[in-house]
Design a protein that fits this description.
Elements: E1 5-6, E2 21-22, H1 28-32, H2 46-49, E3 62-79, E4 89-91, E5 97-107, E6 112-119, E7 123-127, E8 142-158, E9 162-182, E10 190-198, E11 201-215, E12 218-225, E13 228-240, H3 246-255, E14 261-270, E15 273-280, E16 286-295, E17 303-305, E18 315-317, E19 324-334, E20 340-348, E21 366-375, E22 378-392, E23 401-415
Parallel strand pairs: 1-14
Antiparallel strand pairs: 2-7, 3-4, 3-5, 3-23, 5-6, 6-8, 7-8, 8-9, 9-10, 9-11, 10-13, 11-12, 12-15, 13-14, 15-16, 16-19, 17-18, 19-20, 20-21, 21-22, 22-23
């Protein structure tokens, strides 16, 4: 059995995977254009978008600091036969999440720039309301994966037309999940609530990019981020849920270890991503960019939680991911007085097949529309994501049903 805890996702720059994997917005300028940024040399956020473009940013010594916020607008489940969910309905709670990002760049000799970034690239959060009544509670009642990166990059330019950059990724990941436990197994009679929390675990990866600007009206970019992997330990804690049957409760108390920290082990895996983009600027005021990103989801395997001292609590989440493409289109208009208006659209295909859709990872294809505004040193962006209605009748966990959701995000970044 292969252990894997996935923590990633998919796009380069905005939350598009509510209930599934998300990638946070790394700067309001990119977020306002739906994350289309690999073919622009705009500011220090190029550390994330394209290390090669960092070499040609206008201000060689600069810094960017900001915050992104995201939440579900709605996330609904309506059960369909066959399976435990038939005739039931549920929804996810809508907590807001806030994540900071910070980038800086300084000259390094005559032809190079040293850049660094701190950001939260990947996140996944699922939390079902009224977990005691949720049909999928024995699979998962909540799940959360958080990742933050520290990325130092060196970029070198050849004249004003070509830049190349590369750097390391120091990645920290944490995970928390909960589910209900039944006894006897498969009886659907809940006797406990299991909460699992991982320790922070570090892994090392790398990033690289190239940027070409053959004319003032055209620029091309390509960037790559490597996959990462790390072993993870953590703790699980099982709390007994009384059944009202004193004899059964006593049997359960003797069978399981309650109210003690139990060792849990797994492995974190995140896929590699390759992004390609083209930007056209017909005039000084306008810019259009098209990006395409390939995410190697097949590098990510099933999520397995192992309890060495309590193997009856082991849990496997089958993912069966497929590699996917994400497409983004962005538009920027600069007014004669300086302010900028940005618009964007993104289309992302879910890597998750119908059979793997469930309580832990309810994902679907999604579209995102964005708008942003920039004035001197401050930029803001707003976006709304719509998840394609997904009707599942082949769920491996039996949680067949109708899944649909919407989410929103907001980003603010200050650049000096």
């Amino acid at each position: 059995m292969r252990n894997s805890l996935v923590v990633s996702l998919f796009l380069s720059a905005l939350p598009l995977y509510a209930g599934g994997f998300e990638v946070e917005a790394q700067g309001a300028r990119a977020a306002g254009m739906a994350g289309a940024c690999v073919a622009q040399a705009a500011d220090p956020t190029a550390v994330f978008c394209n290390p090669g473009a960092l070499a040609l940013i206008p201000k060689k010594k600069s810094a960017a600091l900001g915050m992104s916020a995201a939440a579900f607008h709605e996330s609904l489940y309506q059960g369909l036969p066959p399976g435990a969910g038939a005739g039931t309905a549920s929804q996810q709670v809508t907590p807001r999440t806030m994540q900071p990002h910070a980038f800086a760049a300084v000259p390094l000799g005559a032809n190079a720039i040293l850049g660094t970034g701190f950001y939260h690239p990947f996140r996944m959060q699922t939390e079902w309301a009224a977990p005691g009544a949720f049909a999928g509670r024995f699979d998962a009642t909540s799940s959360r994966i958080d990742v933050f990166d520290i990325t130092p990059v060196v970029a070198v330019h050849v004249g004003e037309a070509f830049g190349v950059g590369a750097g390391g990724i120091y990645r920290t990941s944490t995970m928390a999940a909960s589910r209900r436990v039944d006894f006897p197994a498969g009886s659907q009679r809940e006797v406990g609530s299991l909460a699992m929390t991982s320790d922070s675990r570090h892994s090392i990866g790398w990033t690289a990019g190239m940027f070409l600007r053959p004319s003032a009206k055209l620029s091309l970019g390509a960037a790559f981020r490597s996959k990462t992997k790390a072993n993870v330990n953590g703790t699980g804690r099982l709390t007994q849920i009384p059944t009202g049957d004193a004899q059964l409760d006593a049997l359960v108390a003797a069978r399981f270890t309650f109210n003690q920290d139990l060792l849990v082990t797994t492995t974190t895996e995140l896929p590699s991503q390759a992004t390609f983009g083209l930007a056209l600027s017909p005039s000084d005021a306008t810019l259009f960019e098209l990006d395409a990103e390939r995410t190697a989801w097949t590098d990510v395997h099933d999520i397995v939680f192992l309890f060495p001292s309590a193997p009856e609590l082991d849990k496997t989440f089958a993912l069966r991911f497929a590699d996917t493409w994400t497409y983004r289109a962005g538009f920027r208009y600069r007014f004669p007085t300086g302010p900028q208006l940005r618009l964007g659209y993104a289309l992302a295909k879910s890597p998750l097949p119908d059979a793997a859709v469930g309580a832990f990872f309810p994902d679907s294809d999604r579209t995102t529309v964005t708008a942003g505004f920039g004035l001197d040193w401050i930029d803001v962006a707003l976006g709304m994501t719509t998840y394609k209605q997904r009707i599942v009748v082949t769920s491996m966990t039996g949680l067949n049903g109708n899944y649909r959701a919407k989410s929103w995000f907001a980003v603010m970044t200050m650049t000096k």
